[in-house]
Design a protein that fits this description.
The chain is mainly alpha-helical. Helix content is 82%, strand content 0%.
Length: 232
């Protein structure tokens, strides 16, 4: 590997690692917020949250540019190509997680003024903790060359989906017969937005796990059953 190629590949990997740190920090902030019961960040933390999200956007653009440059200028061999493709895929997934985290934060602020929704906070928190763990383990898989954590992430995607379905059913059951009330409808919509975004965060974690397996094994396992992956 030439020095320029090595430097270019290291640069794109480093940016993905920085994106990962920002995303995990955003998710930890949301967990702490839910556990605190306040549901609204103070001004300083809120400003930092928004700044981090913009930084994630900027990193995604830079990584996209560097990805194209590496392909066109440095002609990476197979293992190098898998790494830069995986980095590119991760950058997209991480930026989306940042967007979804920000959406959750905004809706939590609205819920702070709707006491009727507080009873769902524990379930939302548990769902977020699971999704956050999936993100973290998928990233550990990529950066530590660890297939096991990638498989764990893929296995737990169904768990988050199940929690989401149970939550929606519980909300519908609780509000049956009163859905015509505008406040009740607003409550339902806000909860649905939050749990849907958390479910999508978990989906992005599975995408990261799939990219990690692609990098480590050279196999594209998207749309593949988890049992088939584990048997290989």
């Amino acid at each position: 590997m030439t020095a320029k190629k090595e430097s270019a590949i290291e640069s794109i990997r480093d940016k993905v690692e920085r994106m990962s740190e920002l995303v995990l920090a955003q998710l930890r902030e949301l967990e702490e917020l839910l556990n605190s019961g306040r549901l609204q960040l103070d001004k300083e933390k809120e400003s930092r949250f928004f700044l981090n999200e913009r930084t994630l956007d900027e990193y995604e653009i830079k990584i996209s540019e560097e990805f194209i440059n590496i392909l066109s200028l440095h002609k990476p061999v197979a293992s190098e190509l898998r790494l830069v493709v995986a980095c590119y895929r991760l950058s997209i997934n991480l930026e989306r997680i940042g967007d979804m985290s920000l959406k959750v934060l905004r809706v939590l602020s609205d819920i702070n003024h709707q006491p009727a929704l507080i009873e769902f906070i524990d379930e939302i928190t548990n769902m977020l903790v699971m999704a956050s763990s999936m993100v973290e383990k998928s990233l550990i898989s990529f950066f530590n060359n660890d297939i096991g954590n990638a498989v764990w992430t893929l296995r737990n995607d169904d768990v988050v989906d199940e929690v989401n379905n149970k939550m929606i059913k519980k909300i519908i059951k609780k509000n049956r017969g009163t859905v015509s009330d505008s406040k009740t409808m607003s409550n339902f919509i806000n909860i649905k937005i939050i749990v849907s975004n958390i479910e999508r965060i978990a989906d992005q974690a599975t995408n990261i796990a799939e990219a990690s397996i692609y990098y480590l094994r050279g196999e594209d396992i998207r749309h593949t059953d988890i049992t088939d992956i584990e048997s290989r």
